[in-house]
Amino acid sequence: MNEEIEFIIDSAKESMEQAIKHLKKQLVNIRAGKANPSMLSSVMVEYYGTMTPLNQVSNVNTPDARTLTIQPFEKGMIKEIEKGIMNANLGFNPQNNGDNVIINVPPLTEERRIQLSKQAKAEAEEAKIGVRNDRRSAMNEIKKADLPEDVQKDTEEEIQKLTDSFIEEIDKVYANKEKEIMTV
Fold this sequence. Notes:
This protein is α+β, with helices and mostly antiparallel strands. It contains 4 helices and 6 strands, in the order αββββαββαα. Helix content is about 60%, strand content about 15%.
Protein backbone atom coordinates (compact mmCIF):
# COMPACT_ATOMS: atom_id res chain seq x y z
CA MET A 1 0.00 0.00 0.00
CA ASN A 2 2.90 2.37 0.79
CA GLU A 3 4.44 1.72 -2.65
CA GLU A 4 1.16 2.66 -4.27
CA ILE A 5 1.13 6.03 -2.46
CA GLU A 6 4.76 6.69 -3.42
CA PHE A 7 3.99 5.82 -7.03
CA ILE A 8 1.03 8.23 -7.13
CA ILE A 9 3.09 11.06 -5.60
CA ASP A 10 6.11 10.39 -7.84
CA SER A 11 4.03 10.31 -11.01
CA ALA A 12 2.27 13.55 -10.02
CA LYS A 13 5.63 15.19 -9.30
CA GLU A 14 7.04 14.01 -12.63
CA SER A 15 4.01 15.39 -14.52
CA MET A 16 4.32 18.74 -12.71
CA GLU A 17 8.04 18.91 -13.57
CA GLN A 18 7.11 18.35 -17.22
CA ALA A 19 4.72 21.32 -17.03
CA ILE A 20 7.57 23.55 -15.82
CA LYS A 21 9.94 22.24 -18.51
CA HIS A 22 7.32 22.98 -21.14
CA LEU A 23 6.79 26.49 -19.73
CA LYS A 24 10.52 27.24 -19.86
CA LYS A 25 10.69 25.98 -23.43
CA GLN A 26 7.74 28.17 -24.44
CA LEU A 27 9.20 31.24 -22.71
CA VAL A 28 12.49 30.87 -24.61
CA ASN A 29 10.53 31.44 -27.82
CA ILE A 30 9.17 34.76 -26.50
CA ARG A 31 11.87 37.23 -27.36
CA ALA A 32 12.94 39.87 -24.91
CA GLY A 33 14.87 42.93 -25.97
CA LYS A 34 18.11 41.17 -26.79
CA ALA A 35 19.19 38.84 -29.57
CA ASN A 36 19.21 35.14 -28.78
CA PRO A 37 20.11 32.23 -31.11
CA SER A 38 16.96 30.39 -30.01
CA MET A 39 14.94 33.09 -31.79
CA LEU A 40 15.77 31.25 -35.01
CA SER A 41 14.87 27.77 -33.72
CA SER A 42 11.78 27.60 -35.95
CA VAL A 43 13.68 28.46 -39.15
CA MET A 44 13.84 25.64 -41.70
CA VAL A 45 16.25 25.75 -44.66
CA GLU A 46 16.17 23.69 -47.84
CA TYR A 47 19.36 21.62 -47.80
CA TYR A 48 19.86 19.32 -50.78
CA GLY A 49 16.10 19.03 -51.29
CA THR A 50 15.27 18.40 -47.61
CA MET A 51 13.87 20.92 -45.13
CA THR A 52 16.46 21.08 -42.35
CA PRO A 53 16.62 23.15 -39.12
CA LEU A 54 18.89 26.19 -39.45
CA ASN A 55 21.13 25.09 -36.58
CA GLN A 56 22.05 21.91 -38.52
CA VAL A 57 23.45 23.80 -41.52
CA SER A 58 25.12 26.73 -39.75
CA ASN A 59 26.42 28.27 -36.54
CA VAL A 60 24.25 30.98 -35.00
CA ASN A 61 26.02 33.50 -32.74
CA THR A 62 25.25 36.76 -30.98
CA PRO A 63 28.23 39.11 -31.19
CA ASP A 64 26.25 41.77 -29.31
CA ALA A 65 22.80 42.29 -27.80
CA ARG A 66 21.23 43.51 -31.07
CA THR A 67 22.86 41.28 -33.71
CA LEU A 68 22.65 37.65 -34.79
CA THR A 69 25.26 36.23 -37.15
CA ILE A 70 24.69 33.02 -39.03
CA GLN A 71 27.77 31.33 -40.43
CA PRO A 72 26.80 28.55 -42.87
CA PHE A 73 28.86 25.38 -43.02
CA GLU A 74 28.77 25.71 -46.82
CA LYS A 75 29.06 29.11 -48.52
CA GLY A 76 26.43 28.17 -51.11
CA MET A 77 23.78 28.01 -48.37
CA ILE A 78 23.69 31.77 -47.77
CA LYS A 79 20.78 32.41 -50.18
CA GLU A 80 18.82 29.44 -48.80
CA ILE A 81 19.35 30.66 -45.21
CA GLU A 82 18.12 34.14 -46.13
CA LYS A 83 15.09 32.60 -47.85
CA GLY A 84 14.38 30.37 -44.83
CA ILE A 85 14.48 33.34 -42.44
CA MET A 86 12.12 35.34 -44.66
CA ASN A 87 9.74 32.34 -44.98
CA ALA A 88 9.70 31.88 -41.18
CA ASN A 89 8.03 35.31 -41.00
CA LEU A 90 9.83 36.38 -37.83
CA GLY A 91 9.95 40.03 -38.83
CA PHE A 92 13.72 40.01 -39.42
CA ASN A 93 15.50 41.40 -42.46
CA PRO A 94 18.58 39.24 -43.14
CA GLN A 95 21.61 40.72 -44.87
CA ASN A 96 24.69 38.92 -46.09
CA ASN A 97 28.30 40.01 -46.44
CA GLY A 98 29.35 37.09 -48.63
CA ASP A 99 30.46 34.89 -45.73
CA ASN A 100 27.75 35.31 -43.10
CA VAL A 101 24.09 36.23 -42.80
CA ILE A 102 23.60 39.12 -40.38
CA ILE A 103 20.35 40.00 -38.65
CA ASN A 104 19.94 43.25 -36.75
CA VAL A 105 17.29 42.74 -34.07
CA PRO A 106 15.22 45.91 -33.71
CA PRO A 107 14.56 47.19 -30.19
CA LEU A 108 11.10 46.45 -28.81
CA THR A 109 8.54 49.22 -28.37
CA GLU A 110 6.82 49.64 -25.01
CA GLU A 111 3.55 48.40 -26.52
CA ARG A 112 5.25 45.28 -27.89
CA ARG A 113 6.91 44.61 -24.53
CA ILE A 114 3.50 44.70 -22.85
CA GLN A 115 2.11 42.27 -25.46
CA LEU A 116 5.01 39.88 -24.91
CA SER A 117 4.55 40.10 -21.15
CA LYS A 118 0.88 39.17 -21.56
CA GLN A 119 1.88 36.27 -23.80
CA ALA A 120 4.34 35.05 -21.15
CA LYS A 121 1.64 35.35 -18.47
CA ALA A 122 -0.72 33.26 -20.61
CA GLU A 123 1.96 30.57 -20.93
CA ALA A 124 2.46 30.62 -17.14
CA GLU A 125 -1.30 30.24 -16.62
CA GLU A 126 -1.34 27.25 -19.00
CA ALA A 127 1.44 25.66 -16.93
CA LYS A 128 -0.52 26.28 -13.71
CA ILE A 129 -3.57 24.63 -15.27
CA GLY A 130 -1.42 21.63 -16.18
CA VAL A 131 -0.11 21.37 -12.61
CA ARG A 132 -3.63 21.59 -11.18
CA ASN A 133 -4.82 18.90 -13.59
CA ASP A 134 -1.96 16.69 -12.41
CA ARG A 135 -3.04 17.33 -8.80
CA ARG A 136 -6.63 16.39 -9.62
CA SER A 137 -5.50 13.17 -11.32
CA ALA A 138 -3.39 12.25 -8.28
CA MET A 139 -6.28 12.99 -5.91
CA ASN A 140 -8.57 10.75 -7.97
CA GLU A 141 -5.97 7.96 -7.88
CA ILE A 142 -5.80 8.26 -4.08
CA LYS A 143 -9.57 7.99 -3.78
CA LYS A 144 -9.56 4.91 -5.99
CA ALA A 145 -6.75 3.32 -3.96
CA ASP A 146 -9.11 2.43 -1.08
CA LEU A 147 -6.77 3.69 1.65
CA PRO A 148 -7.57 4.29 5.33
CA GLU A 149 -9.07 7.74 5.83
CA ASP A 150 -6.12 9.21 7.80
CA VAL A 151 -3.56 7.96 5.25
CA GLN A 152 -5.70 9.34 2.43
CA LYS A 153 -5.89 12.76 4.13
CA ASP A 154 -2.11 12.86 4.74
CA THR A 155 -1.39 11.91 1.13
CA GLU A 156 -3.81 14.54 -0.20
CA GLU A 157 -2.11 17.17 1.96
CA GLU A 158 1.30 16.09 0.64
CA ILE A 159 0.09 16.38 -2.96
CA GLN A 160 -1.36 19.82 -2.21
CA LYS A 161 1.99 20.98 -0.78
CA LEU A 162 3.70 19.63 -3.90
CA THR A 163 1.22 21.50 -6.09
CA ASP A 164 1.74 24.73 -4.16
CA SER A 165 5.53 24.48 -4.55
CA PHE A 166 5.23 23.97 -8.31
CA ILE A 167 2.78 26.87 -8.67
CA GLU A 168 5.28 29.02 -6.75
CA GLU A 169 8.07 27.86 -9.11
CA ILE A 170 5.93 28.81 -12.13
CA ASP A 171 5.37 32.27 -10.64
CA LYS A 172 9.14 32.72 -10.19
CA VAL A 173 9.88 31.62 -13.77
CA TYR A 174 7.23 34.05 -15.08
CA ALA A 175 8.50 36.91 -12.89
CA ASN A 176 12.04 36.44 -14.25
CA LYS A 177 10.78 36.40 -17.85
CA GLU A 178 8.60 39.47 -17.28
CA LYS A 179 11.56 41.35 -15.81
CA GLU A 180 13.67 40.33 -18.84
CA ILE A 181 10.96 41.48 -21.29
CA MET A 182 10.28 44.81 -19.60
CA THR A 183 13.96 45.75 -19.12
CA VAL A 184 14.97 48.29 -21.74
